Amino acid sequence: MCGIVGYVGKEQATPIIIEGLRRLEYRGYDSAGIALLNASSIHVVKEVGKLSALRSRLQKESPVGTTGIGHTRWATHGVPSEVNAHPHHDCTRSFMLVHNGIIENYTELRQELLDKGHRFVSETDTEVVVHLIEENYSGDLLRAMLSSMRRLKGAYAFAVIAAHEPDTIVAARCGSPLVVGVGNGCNLVASDASAVLSHTRRVVYLEDNHAVRLGRDNLVVCDIAGNEVEPNVKEITLNLSDMEKAGHPHFMIKEIFEQPSLVADVLMRRIPPTSREIDFQEARLQTLGLDRIRRVMMVSCGTACHASMVGKYYIEEFARLPVEVDVASEFRYRNPVITDDTLVIAISQSGETADTLAGVREARRRGAKVLSLINVEGSSIDRESDATLYVYAGPEIAVASTKAYTAQILALFLLALFLGRKRGLLEEPHFREVVKELRLIPGKMQSVLDNHEVVKICAHKFSDAPNFLYLGRSYNYPNALEGALKLKELSYIHAEGCGAGEMKHGPIALIDDTFPVVCLAPAGRVYEKMVSNMQEIRARRGILIAIATEGNKEMAAQCEHVISVPHTHEALSPLLTVIPLQLLAYYVTTMKGLDVDQPRNLAKSVTVE
Ligand code: M6R
């Protein structure tokens, strides 16, 4: 939800800011802008559309200056237009500000500022902040920012420059991520660390209600009351090369194909070949008091929520603990029953999803211990949880989540085994048997990927269909939801996922001879039930696409198209069946000529409610 970057140093800031924005474009891409400070004048360039549009414009008018801020937008208040694009300015154009988040009390503040004679030009909530700074300024930008923060309600990360304060950026955060890059002769600020990594590995994750003043060689952090705070500088270990396409046409396909090696690497880390137990050492699980846990609640959004649903099956199966799964946006506004024997598990790739973060805060406020499963180390949810299990998916750049989903499912499977062992419910022979099968998963995933042409043919046959239905049962029910989400968010084809047993209670009315139904039917306890539901579709002339276990002849006889996956333990089958679903969405989307890495209206990191 919007990416912000700022640079103050000795080099020309424009290319540095644009490169940072390129790394943050996953956060929003409906318009972009940049403001450069040169002596006491500020040069602003904004453009509607993706960053490439701003880039082309900058080739014609390149602003000069060694201090500047930039923004890539995901619209909340006001349509994507040049006037609504950031940076925003005050009445005299002396201050320029970029913002990520939502100012909830902007209507009342705007009226107050209008009454004082301020003139507004945009429809955004952001503009009130830069006018507030103008109002509060008396020669010190940091102080003006702190005074303004005290008036704001909502979530924000800001960076602001002022014509009267050369070589200075002031930034602040409350609820939206912000990281300071501590360089040599320069300092940066950005929505995430990837945007500063070309310049420094030393970062400060700004705390909520803190503001920072950055000069070329100095930085001062203050809390909202104006007290100076010692910055906590950390070294980051991310690799820039992991954030490139590495010869693939899109990030999404690169990330899909990374899944076998990702699973192999996680297994090597979590259950090294000589080990008989699962190694969660870095997670500090002992802080959770696991011995007294009698119940689990999971909070997450989107794809992470589908992974939570798979995790529910795992924890109930192997650890015999009751599990509830909630979408975070519902959890935070109902009145959940949380007792001191409840463990809340929050799952998030980015670790910044606003609803999930609010769920974590709410759970802790009610006295629960929170364990988070996170991909991005140092993210807000990581830092605010009692314990964190990293899923180690590596940087996921495509807006549609693929490898992070697999990594979340794997982490949940390992967690369920760990809890089962700890609770004395999973005997060693059974544990060894499932781990043995788990070690075969990377090879089996690779063979599904090697078969990608079969999925491509399927995509070719059905890419014109206006609707799709996805059906699954048991461990593969969440994958039905995930398959539908992948297809709709990328290709804009309407798709629904449904528990196969639920189909007859409504969705079956949709079926006719134009309607493709993707059925997840790997071998397992519910296979026969799945076959019956597929017969019901066939009887209504629906088009059956099956994802089934290799060697299944029954499916070949009954379905329009069959995609095979190797045999595995049924609990592990979602790790295999999800790959054709990801590939199907990818191929249908590319066949339609759509932007697979940056679908319309979406952003990867949803830091607003
Ligand atoms: O970063 P998170 O895992 O918390 O993100 C949650 C969802 O926003 C995310 O999974 C979203 O649904 C993706 N677009 C799915 O591909």
Automatic annotation (TrEMBL):
<dbReference type="InterPro" id="IPR047084">
    <property type="entry name" value="GFAT_N"/>
</dbReference>
<dbReference type="GO" id="GO:0004360">
    <property type="term" value="F:glutamine-fructose-6-phosphate transaminase (isomerizing) activity"/>
</dbReference>
<dbReference type="GO" id="GO:0006047">
    <property type="term" value="P:UDP-N-acetylglucosamine metabolic process"/>
</dbReference>
<dbReference type="InterPro" id="IPR035490">
    <property type="entry name" value="GlmS/FrlB_SIS"/>
</dbReference>
<dbReference type="Pfam" id="PF01380">
    <property type="entry name" value="SIS"/>
</dbReference>
<keyword id="KW-0963">Cytoplasm</keyword>
<protein>
    <recommendedName>
        <fullName>Glutamine--fructose-6-phosphate aminotransferase [isomerizing]</fullName>
        <ecNumber>2.6.1.16</ecNumber>
    </recommendedName>
</protein>
<feature type="active site" description="For Fru-6P isomerization activity">
    <location>
        <position position="604"/>
    </location>
</feature>
<dbReference type="InterPro" id="IPR017932">
    <property type="entry name" value="GATase_2_dom"/>
</dbReference>
<feature type="domain" description="SIS">
    <location>
        <begin position="286"/>
        <end position="425"/>
    </location>
</feature>
<dbReference type="GO" id="GO:0006002">
    <property type="term" value="P:fructose 6-phosphate metabolic process"/>
</dbReference>
<dbReference type="GO" id="GO:0005975">
    <property type="term" value="P:carbohydrate metabolic process"/>
</dbReference>
<dbReference type="InterPro" id="IPR046348">
    <property type="entry name" value="SIS_dom_sf"/>
</dbReference>
<dbReference type="GO" id="GO:0046349">
    <property type="term" value="P:amino sugar biosynthetic process"/>
</dbReference>
<dbReference type="InterPro" id="IPR035466">
    <property type="entry name" value="GlmS/AgaS_SIS"/>
</dbReference>
<feature type="domain" description="SIS">
    <location>
        <begin position="458"/>
        <end position="599"/>
    </location>
</feature>
<dbReference type="GO" id="GO:0006487">
    <property type="term" value="P:protein N-linked glycosylation"/>
</dbReference>
<feature type="domain" description="Glutamine amidotransferase type-2">
    <location>
        <begin position="2"/>
        <end position="217"/>
    </location>
</feature>
<dbReference type="Pfam" id="PF13522">
    <property type="entry name" value="GATase_6"/>
</dbReference>
<keyword id="KW-0677">Repeat</keyword>
<dbReference type="GO" id="GO:0097367">
    <property type="term" value="F:carbohydrate derivative binding"/>
</dbReference>
<dbReference type="InterPro" id="IPR001347">
    <property type="entry name" value="SIS_dom"/>
</dbReference>
<keyword id="KW-0315">Glutamine amidotransferase</keyword>
<comment type="function">
    <text>Catalyzes the first step in hexosamine metabolism, converting fructose-6P into glucosamine-6P using glutamine as a nitrogen source.</text>
</comment>
<keyword id="KW-0808">Transferase</keyword>
<dbReference type="InterPro" id="IPR005855">
    <property type="entry name" value="GFAT"/>
</dbReference>
<dbReference type="GO" id="GO:0005829">
    <property type="term" value="C:cytosol"/>
</dbReference>
<comment type="subunit">
    <text>Homodimer.</text>
</comment>
<keyword id="KW-0032">Aminotransferase</keyword>
<dbReference type="InterPro" id="IPR029055">
    <property type="entry name" value="Ntn_hydrolases_N"/>
</dbReference>
<feature type="active site" description="Nucleophile; for GATase activity">
    <location>
        <position position="2"/>
    </location>
</feature>
